[in-house]
Amino acid sequence: MDLLIAMRTFVAVVQAGTMNAAAQKLNVTSALVGQRIAALENHLQVRLLNRTTRQHSLTDFGESYLEQCRDILDLVAQSEGKASDQQAQPQGRLRIAAPLSFGSEALIPALKSFTDMTPGAEIDVVLSDTNEDLIAGGIDAAFRIGKLEDSTLLQTQLAPYRMMVCASSELLMEHGTPRTPLELERFRAVLFSRTGRRAWRFAKDSEIQKWTPKATITVNSSQAVRVAAKAGMGIAMLPECLVTQDIAAGELVRILADWKSPEQPMALIYHRDRYRPQRLASFINFARSTFGNHTTKSKGVHLP
């Protein structure tokens, strides 16, 4: 038995939650994972996991041994990584997940500067509005929008994900330009199906107004919402990163600019590893410098 491989397998099983998931992560069979755990327990002469047919839990000794394994494996990884970390450029594959709109409109254009700085790194980007599981998807880091659930993952807070209310100039010529959220009553909206018909909330100084939109059309793609808004099918609330160029080109007009639109927190999440590959550490620094909140936080009414 290779003790270090057995330790790595034990830690992977605990992190993944099941032996099958750990086997996928390690690219081995579930049977081999089970054999390694059994061999490790036989070597130690003590049970590490309480097993049932579908799940397992750590024994008391297993909990303390887990921390020892992590410390030992971190030290091994640090000693093995020192030589490569002293090389001029980070090397290897980096798998990053991001929401569709943010990923296509903000992340992908910005990645040119990162790849210029790290030519030895290979970037694999996964764009989806469904939050990918980092372990199951083999993902090194993921951008998340919205409130995060409690997790063992680390997170770096970024600038909030801001929304803008927009309409085509033709629609505004027909119905007039609203000056307050209450004047939206004369409009219909193009809605993103994930947010549905929930009320749009706006703030100005200490005042809050909200409006529940009536839909002309509801679609499951923010890009399609953008196209429908440009075609004059209704007003739309869209991510700032998605409509900036349309507004500059005059294809969309921002309305209610003096009212604060909803925004959501955004973060980059990644594994809690004491030893972190240089390519991932470089990407975390890149995300913080590129998408971090570099402006002074303004006081006022908070909108969820």
Describe this entry's structure for a reader.
The protein is an alpha/beta fold. The chain folds into three domains: 3-82, Orthogonal Bundle (Arc Repressor Mutant, subunit A), CATH 1.10.10.10; 92-161 and 264-291, Periplasmic binding protein-like II (D-Maltodextrin-Binding Protein, domain 2), CATH 3.40.190; 162-262, D-Maltodextrin-Binding Protein, domain 2 (3-Layer(aba) Sandwich), CATH 3.40.190. 40% of the residues lie in helices and 24% in strands. It contains nine helices and 13 strands. The protein has helices at 3-16, 19-26, 30-44, 60-85, 100-117, 169-175, 222-230, 240-249, 278-291, and strands at 49-51, 56-58, 92-98, 121-127, 141-145, 154-167, 189-192, 200-204, 207-211, 215-219, 236-239, 253-255, 263-270. The strands form four sheets. Strands 3, 4, 5, 6, 11, 12 and 13 form a seven-stranded mixed β-sheet that branches. It has a two-stranded antiparallel sheet with strand order 1-2. The chain has a two-stranded parallel sheet with strand order 7-10. A hairpin with a 4-residue loop joins β1 and β2 (56-58). α1 packs across α2, α1 (3-16) packs across α4 (60-85) and α2 packs across α3. The longest helix is centred in the N-terminal third of the chain and has 26 residues, at 60-85. The chain is elongated and about 80 Å long.
